[in-house]
Amino acid sequence: MHARITGWGKYLPQRVLTNKDLEKMVDTSDEWIVTRTGIRERRIVGDDEATSTMAVAAGRGALEVAGLSPGLLDMVIVATNSPDRMMPASAALVQHALGAKNAAAFDVVGACSGFIYALVTAYQFIAAGAYENILVVASEAISRAMNWEDRSTSVLFGDGAGAAVVQANEHATDMLSFVLGNDGSGADLLYIPHPCGMPTNVSNDRRYYMIMEGRAVFKFAVTAMVEASKQVIDGAGLNIADIDLFIPHQANSRITQAAIKALDIPSDKVFVNLDRYGNLSAASPAVALCEAVEQRRLKEGDLVVLVAFGAGLSWAAMVLRWQPGA
Ligand code: COA
Question: pTM (2 decimals)?
């Protein structure tokens, strides 16, 4: 059976944390952050919110766009690196809150590549003929894993959620190719040892905060984005010039610039929301895809590349022929 994305949604918490705000919290400056990362502000999850509650809001939006009742969902997959609890999966909380009574539910911990990993998983269940309606949500309360005294990580990340509905379609599949990869030898370069429940269960013990070797991750990121993009475009039988919109993981504008330069992609074909949200981890490509549609950067028939990288060290990419209608 063929499959297509038929719905999209997002949720960003109200609280805005600007670079100027961060200047009061840690030894950094707006000028350094903007020049070295491209980030100007990010959103921070409220005390009464968590990964699951943001996922529910984004998921509801995606179901509404798809015109699909939650009771018809066969599966809910939540991609997150900041789950409410160790157990059960955040997807279990989302399934219940949405009223998706007939859906299987599980989480994907794929770091910043998690949304694409989860989307590809959804396509496989539909291609196999097992399921027809799947909700894929990526949601992060990753600020709860921030050591606010560590300027190498705390300036980079933000919270939010994005979602997509994938449904069986009798005509054609919109995903033309995908690449998923991981190199576990880099697992110690970026990691979080602890879950991130509501309002915050992270102790003051430094061992619970995100640890990152920024320069090593930067180098890996550029290579991973370039190679995964080439492979996935090649796999779809396309050339880079055929791609209408490139949606890279929103981690650092210098990483994106280096990648698109190596790929020879003009910057007007590249979607950016990093300046407003920072790195939303798994939610980054999900929110970017949703905003690309809302801003009419993505039109029926367009060819789009989604590409991400992250802890693992992982990478993931897909080419879509955007066809949410018919
Ligand atoms: N504010 C001010 N100064 C900072 C700073 C901050 N937030 N972070 C680092 N610095 C300082 C460093 O201490 C260093 O000072 P020094 O020259 O006096 O020693 C200087 O800036 C350069 O540090 P460096 O680590 O080389 O900076 P960088 O250009 O590599 O940028 C990152 C740091 C983290 C922004 C960059 O390496 C990066 O984006 N890496 C990838 C991270 C990522 O994307 N992770 C998520 C993957 S999904």
Answer: 0.95
pLDDT score, position 220? 97
**Can 249 be counted among the known catalytic residues?**
yes
Whose tokens are 């890279």? That residue is: 248
**Each residue's pLDDT tens digit, 164-203:** 999 999 999 999 999 999 999 999 999 987 766 655 545 5
> 110: which 2 tokens?
């794929």
Q: How many CB atoms lie within 10 A of CB 132?
A: 18
Distance CA 75, CA 105 (A): 6
Q: How high is the mean pLDDT of the chain?
A: 95
Q: Is the pLDDT of residue 207 over 70?
A: no
Indicate which atom in ligand 1 lies nearest the CA of residue 308: 48
Question: Which one of 21, 117, 152, 274 would you pick to mutate in the ligand 1 pocket, going by the greatest count of ligand atoms within 8 A of its CB?
Answer: 152
* DSSP code for 74: S
pLDDT in tens, 21-74: 999 999 999 999 999 999 999 999 999 999 999 999 999 999 999 999 999 999
Which amino acid, residue 5?
I
Q: For residue 237, count other CB atoms closer than 10 A to its CB.
A: 10
Q: Which CATH architecture has domain 1-326?
A: 3-Layer(aba) Sandwich (3.40)
Residues composing the chain: 326
